[in-house]
């Protein structure tokens, strides 16, 4: 190859490389502009605030349903540990003790207590409905439609979770000793987390979503959430200075911090789900002539 041809080849290569770089950079920038909602951190903080008030009433309802389910009494402890480990990956035993106390006192709530449970739950779900509509660029449900759907979810979630744990336990007993199946059963908690995010995004959107978008976004959210959970546990385990600063109250500070981080990850997952379905706003811009980054 002559020196002239080499120079021409190098020039073409540099031009194509620069063009590819700018195309890739613009694509990454458009994705970031779509996903990185300026108000997302405020939405996560708002949901965390309402979650603090609603988490105990909702857990009381969920565990009350578990207790009254026939043939699932032996799975109660396993189910409780699974739920509490996701609410707060560290200090689960302390949260469990507080929850046991709340459960024992739940029978003496009275009308005022029941009113608090109802108001806290409704406030949380209305706030969640509004923010989910923002994330998916959809229309919020009407009050009673929203109330009916979310209370149905609360009722069916314990039943589905109890059945899945009971079923996997029975199958594992029957097929005990099979190496490949043991590996599969180890993956069940992760698959269950993926399924929960999948259903959460599908029901929260209040509009049709592509199956591939739902699967991709829920998978991505599951991976990020599990990695974040691992990092959170690692930080709490190796960083012991917080005990000398905050003392026993540090448990509740970590609870609030983890709730905020969890909502942050979930809201980003919703934006990715919406982005996968609309090519990160391009389809909406072509159809309506609007910029979705400003919605």
From TrEMBL:
It comes from Helicobacter japonicus. Keywords: Cell membrane, Membrane, Transmembrane, Transmembrane helix. It is found in: Cell membrane. One of its GO terms (cellular component) is plasma membrane. This is YihY family inner membrane protein. The keyword Glycosyltransferase does not apply. The chain crosses the membrane at residues 47-67, 108-126, 147-167, 187-205, 212-237, 249-270. It comes from the Bacteria. It is a multi-pass membrane protein.
């Amino acid at each position: 190859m002559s020196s002239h041809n080499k120079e021409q080849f190098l020039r073409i290569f540099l031009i194509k490389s620069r063009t590819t770089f700018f195309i890739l950079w613009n694509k990454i920038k458009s994705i970031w502009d779509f996903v990185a909602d300026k108000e997302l951190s405020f939405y996560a903080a708002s949901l965390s605030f309402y979650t603090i008030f609603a988490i105990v009433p909702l857990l009381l309802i969920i565990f009350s349903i578990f207790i009254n389910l026939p043939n699932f009494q032996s799975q109660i402890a396993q189910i409780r540990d699974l739920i509490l480990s996701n609410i707060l990956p560290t200090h689960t035993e302390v949260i469990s003790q507080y929850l046991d106390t709340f459960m024992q006192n739940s029978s003496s709530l009275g009308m005022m207590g029941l009113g608090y449970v109802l108001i806290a739950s409704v406030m949380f779900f209305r706030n969640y409905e509004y923010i989910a509509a923002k994330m998916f660029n959809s229309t919020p449900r009407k009050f009673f439609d929203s109330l009916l759907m979310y209370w149905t979810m609360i009722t069916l979630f314990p039943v589905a979770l109890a059945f899945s744990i009971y079923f996997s336990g029975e199958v594992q007993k029957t097929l005990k000793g099979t190496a490949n199946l043991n590996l599969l059963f180890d993956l069940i908690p992760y698959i269950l987390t993926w399924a929960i995010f999948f259903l959460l995004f599908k029901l929260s959107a209040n509009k049709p979503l592509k199956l591939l978008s739902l699967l991709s976004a829920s998978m991505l959210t599951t991976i990020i959430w599990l990695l974040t959970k691992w990092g959170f546990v690692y930080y709490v385990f190796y960083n012991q200075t917080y005990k000398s600063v905050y003392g026993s109250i540090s448990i509740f500070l970590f609870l609030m911090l983890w709730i905020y981080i969890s909502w942050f990850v979930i809201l980003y997952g919703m934006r990715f789900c919406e982005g996968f379905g609309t090519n990160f706003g391009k389809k909406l811009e072509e159809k309506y002539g609007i910029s979705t980054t400003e919605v």
